[in-house]
Amino acid sequence: MSAEIVPLNGAHDVTQLNCGVPEFDEWLKKTARTSEERDLARTYVIADENDVVIACRALVASSMESSALTSNNRHGLPRFIPAILLGRLAVDLEHKGLRSAFLGHACRTAVEVSGQVGARYLFADAMNEAARSWYLKKEMKAVNDSNVCYARIKDLRAEV
């Protein structure tokens, strides 16, 4: 099976994803296409040979409050810092090996977008402690003790 990452389209079957987080599965089924149409998110997927979605993720233009960062990291920054939100990173339980590649694609996309609009961070609001630990293993940092994890676009740019 190819692990091609493509924009969500009408041919994709979004009804069968089972990522272990029912809220994410339901978001794909009920909200992803509407979010696309309303310019609220851009969703990318990996589908099998039958166009059944086995992984999805959304990117959204966003911001972070500088008060969430340590004083060293927020010095000289405005109250709201331009950022890109990685939302709904979900991979079917039978295809968990695709998670790292999907995160890498999101990072490369964030770097590309930041070349066109200002964005200092890529951040994700981890759904639970397991997701938070996974993001931290992928060299993201946690905002204080929260489930919000982030990477500086500058650092991502150096890696891609």
UniProtKB/TrEMBL annotation:
Keywords: Acyltransferase, Toxin-antitoxin system, Transferase. The keyword Oxidoreductase does not apply. Signal peptide: none annotated. The keyword Translocase does not apply. Gene3D superfamilies: 3.40.630.30. It comes from the Bacteria. InterPro entries: Acyl_CoA_acyltransferase. One of its GO terms (molecular function) is acyltransferase activity. This is N-acetyltransferase domain-containing protein.
